Amino acid sequence: MQRRGALFGVLGGGRKMAAGDIGELLVPHMPTIRVPRSGDRVYKNECAFSYDSPNSEGGLYVCMNTFLAFGREHVERHFRKTGQSVYMHLKRHVKEKVRGASGGALPQRRNSKIFLDLDTDDDLNSDDYEYEDEAKLVIFPDHYEIALPNIEELPALVTIACDAVLSSKSPYRKQDPDTWENELPVSKYANNLTQLDNGVRIPPSGWKCARCDLRENLWLNLTDGSILCGKWFFDSSGGNGHALEHYRDMGYPLAVKLGTITPDGADVYSFQEEEPVLDPHLAKHLAHFGIDMLHMHGTENRLRDNDIKPRVSEWEVIQESGTKLKPMYGPGYTGLKNLGNSCYLSSVMQAIFSIPEFQRAYVGNLPRIFDYSPLDPTQDFNTQMTKLGHGLLSGQYSKPPVKAELIEQVMKEEHKPQQNGISPRMFKAFVSKSHPEFSSNRQQDAQEFFLHLVNLVERNRIGSENPSDVFRFLVEERIQCCQTRKVRYTERVDYLMQLPVAMEAATNKDELIAYELTRREAEANRRPLPELVRAKIPFSACLQAFSEPENVDDFWSSALQAKSAGVKTSRFASFPEYLVVQIKKFTFGLDWVPKKFDVSIDMPDLLDINHLRARGLQPGEEELPDISPPIVIPDDSKDRLMNQLIDPSDIDESSVMQLAEMGFPLEACRKAVYFTGNMGAEVAFNWIIIHMEEPDFAEPLTMPGYGGAASAGASVFGASGLDNQPPEEIVAIITSMGFQRNQAVQALRATNNNLERALDWIFSHPEFEEDSDFVIEMENNANANIISEAKPEGPRVKDGSGMYELFAFISHMGTSTMSGHYVCHIKKEGRWVIYNDHKVCASERAPKDLGYMYFYRRIPS
């Protein structure tokens, strides 16, 4: 077909086509044009691969079949990959307003030319500029354009589809701070909730599940005051579902999540209604168990935060608002717009993408990741990480205003060097989905999000490359029985170092006492509060507190075969490439009011922790016997324990995945669930602890009568031998992309016939030789490979020197992690830069002593 229209030209080079011509042009593509259905996500504000929007120079192209949107640089990729030809092109134009005879703008009237739901540009003066939106259909590959609306000439289906796309709601509706909270219904059980008069009083801390002793994701039942763990989440956090079991046993419908209670409310869940709900009588229901929310509300809001000078001071110091900050532009100096309490995410991601290993893993692999992304790239972690990294590092979205614009702003006395930044809506929607906290619009803990992100990186590694390796280190824990003096050494994986605040080591105690007396007197007499005096804590004291022994609750001594007193000390069995240090500033007071240690700690620019290197078993120390505590089987499960083994095909895969997400080998998890009779992850976990040192711990489950391996998943090729030939239809898909058949077969066998993982495998094994004999040799040696690969591998760590230098820190302002604001400082090109949401400026006085999380890089020895 002869090319008739340029990319941004008009249809047919300006020739007006008759209605029949347009209909004829669309006929071959009609089967691919869809009308959005309920549940379809229509992206018309943001490209799936970049931060282009209708405001961008090239506009935005919305696929009329998938409803994904693409900028000018990425729409051709989608067309080549899917064959979808019809796109709606959206463009917003900014025009100077027409002026009247007196020189002023004409009276403002309703602008019927705006139909796109887009953020307006705060840099533009609304008195001088106006917007005009344009929509047209573009048919690839010849880029024919059909202006919209065009009701008379377009087929009815196309007109309906276009109208539906233009009127569709944002796919990020839950992230809208004005709407998401209103989606929660009021529980029908709240008004007449029965509460037992059983004398239960809930302490402000130290909670644990009444059935399994877990200390996270705990829920308080509002009827009887039971504290039980919630369900297991996809990111390995959560619990064993005992709160739900309690509801099934007792029928008590409402529970509140401990740790979320603030003066403004808390997370309440209705088991009967199976959804989060609102409890308008929550304060009364909590008071029944000694949690006085009304008192908390009165205490915290007796003076508003803005009326309390100390809090204002903290905000000013951390944001450096008392100084004139110079905006920074260019690669690496792009800000992130705040979506409503999303600053915790922005601060963490700015720090993450200042690390070269993350830059290389994602932005460095951008062409490959984008070219081989799934059909819906908005739902792919690596694609969205790459998109965000490129947006922050390319400089494409951080350009200084041109000289003419600055002169015009100065002449109009409205010079405000604004920075737009990029909006991480798509990224936040993906990384937070299915997570009850991060998917909300509430403020969150930056430390918890950091660990959540590391978990996602681990689970979505690109081939053998895993940038989160730079954070991983091993902790040696030494536990000593106080009665027998015998010891046990164990190792665990961690990703950050948590330092306690050593308040007792404050160097200005006299000043603190005087300030406290003056403050109380001012409050009593309702006078202005005195200027804040912060506790000055030496960093060395916090480091010392970290290394000191701590008591072990409910310690079971294998030497005594009974519970006893025990103490634990922790040391570094390895030092990470990048050390993340969290200052444990947040706690709860006896009155349940969230408290923050507002302290100043002299964090060092150079940090030496070599003295915290683990030493292992020392001469003269005697190890505790290798005897595990007895497994306590719940009464309601004893009748399920049978002498006969279950059929391997009946293994509870949900329990297997819960254990696998904790880092144990998959086959070991299957055996644990199998040999404990499908009694749940908790009992299977105890089996793992007992058997993890056995040589066949991670080998596939084999039982007489079941013909060998119970699962082929443990094999490096996905099967033991030639029987597991990959499905021909999947092989055909890979070979159609230009890869050799032998390469496709090997990749599928290495990834258990998973198409997307097989493509990743191909790109992570460039050394593959296109030799058919290689496949035969691979198949003949499959069993030997199974044996070598089945051995459990220890966690990958990048050990080295314990000398570090500070390169970034995240600071928090506010009274608790559930409120306030986060800001990030990063050292770039020899100077500190402050990242405060979309604003990126050169720092004048980096408040290193007030940080919450600190990022150190190893100094090469």
TrEMBL record:
Tagged with keyword Heme: no
Domain USP: 334-859
Name under which the protein is recorded: Ubiquitin carboxyl-terminal hydrolase
One GO location term (cellular component): cytoplasm
Compartment annotation: Cytoplasm
Coiled-coil residue windows: none
GO biological process, one term: autophagy
Molecular function as annotated in GO: cysteine-type deubiquitinase activity; zinc ion binding
Subunit and partners: Interacts with UFD1. Interacts (via UBA domains) with SIAH2 (when ubiquitinated). Interacts with BAG6; the interaction is direct and may mediate UBL4A deubiquitination. Interacts (via UBA 2 domain) with AMFR; the interaction is direct. Interacts with UBL4A; may be indirect via BAG6. Interacts with NEDD4.
